Amino acid sequence: MWKQVYAWLDERLGLNDLYTNLLDRPEPKTSWWNTLGSASMFLFILQGFTGIFLTVYYTPSPDHAYDSINYIMEGVAFGWLIRGIHHWGATLMVLVVFIHMLRVFYTASFKYPRELTWLIGIGLFLTTLGMGFTGYLLPWNQKSYWATTVGTQIAGTVPFVGEFILKALRGGPDLSALTLQRFFSAHIWIIPAILAALIGVHLYLIIKHGESHWPKKED
Amino acid sequence: MSGSHELSRRDFIKVTTGIVGGLIGTMIGLPSIFYLIDPALREGGKEAWIPIGKFENMQVNKPYPFTFTRVQVNGWERTASSFGGYAIRKSDAPESLLILNSRCTHLSCTVNWSEEGNVFHCPCHDAAFDIDGEVVDGPPPRALDVYEEYRLTEDGTIEIFFKES
Question: N or C: which end of chain A has fewer CB within 10 A?
Fold first, then answer.
């Protein structure tokens, strides 16, 4: 019965082909360092999952952001767990994505025909940092407030367009409700959308070209 | 080549991945469900006696409107909820009071006493209840709720017993 259902679905969806191409494709002999890309994607999914759950209680308003996070930590069942995973997962994700990038660099995996995969990977690294930067403000505590003050001030030192960038980031000359709201929007919609799209292309390219083998002596 | 009773390297990886993935999924999935439904599992039910007015001010067979608000702490905010009703005096005896909840039994709008129609009228779906709270017209499934427990204090005030849901 299940075999028939599976066969019916496979005929229409190509499940077996998907499985072969995604999970059972031939790979050169590599090492555990090559799993960091998958680890990054796992962390992205984990961050997405816990992030979605955090929005159930979090309020991006200067009046309530801090209180709502306090409530998540102390009032809601397992709130400490969901936020804890999101908090530490964020740090871990930046770390894992960065080590993944170093691995690709040291094994020279960015060379032909994988230049585009590398460039998109740079985009992925930068958007990951963007997630970290925007997410850091959301608790609206002293640390996040001043970190964002400093971060946006640094962006403001760009010659000529600095003031414009600073105002665009903050939604005005100072940190305000607008800053918190637009950082929230960037953190949960804009940057994740870009990140997900880039991951899609990145994955497609990896499946298309396969993984690179580790460089040998003669390479 | 693996024997029939031996697990091949590939199958071992598959099984291990499945088990570890399942563990991670359960460890995050189960708490997430509790996290989501947590507010529904809370015990409310604070009780109070609430004064609604002087017995002497209530006229026989003329609904006496009253309202009160209760403040509840919901999450990180205090929320005031309004409640109301009508006390209907049937005779001189305080025991003859009928205290109706003005919350329509259909979909929780607030009913108003209509002097000309001699009914409690609900503006949302044109429901009507008579002075005893019985359904006269419209979609409500049952009569208006009654505050069953009330008392007359020494200074002549009527208090109703209120239990938060």
Answer: N
